[in-house]
Amino acid sequence: MLIESRPGTDPEVAALVTAQQRELREADGGLEGQATVTHDDIRYLVVVEDGRAVACGGIQALDDGTGELKRMYVRPAYRGFGIARQLLVALEELAFQQGHSVVCLETATYLPAAIGLYTSCGYEPIAVYGEYVDNPYSVCFAKRLPVAA
């Protein structure tokens, strides 16, 4: 398994984000509305297994000290092998390298596996923020990153 940086314009990143958005629409029964596209200001990491991109996630700066985890997704056939946990650690390292001391994220109440991953990795609930405030299904979490020794 290889974790590598890719631009948001990478076709495999776009395919993973499209699959993630499709799965979210199916899970929420169409509650969230229109799919979101990739953003140029998100720094993506991709997990490559046997030459195929199987997972992705990104970090987007909210402010100087805070990065937001975006588009975390693992293809269904690759779930249950710890890929998401390894990717999350790599994304936290990327956020730290970008100068962020906090990583926050939004997920949905109807995604218990995601909530379980984040809480087991030290993320704590915070108030819903930004564009998620009016979404009754949004739940937000944050984690303070360790300070370099």
From TrEMBL:
The keyword Transferase applies. One of its GO terms (molecular function) is acyltransferase activity, transferring groups other than amino-acyl groups. Residues 1-146 form the N-acetyltransferase domain. InterPro entries: Acyl_CoA_acyltransferase, Bact_Acetyltransf, GNAT_dom. Keywords: Acyltransferase, Transferase. It comes from the Bacteria. This is GNAT family N-acetyltransferase.
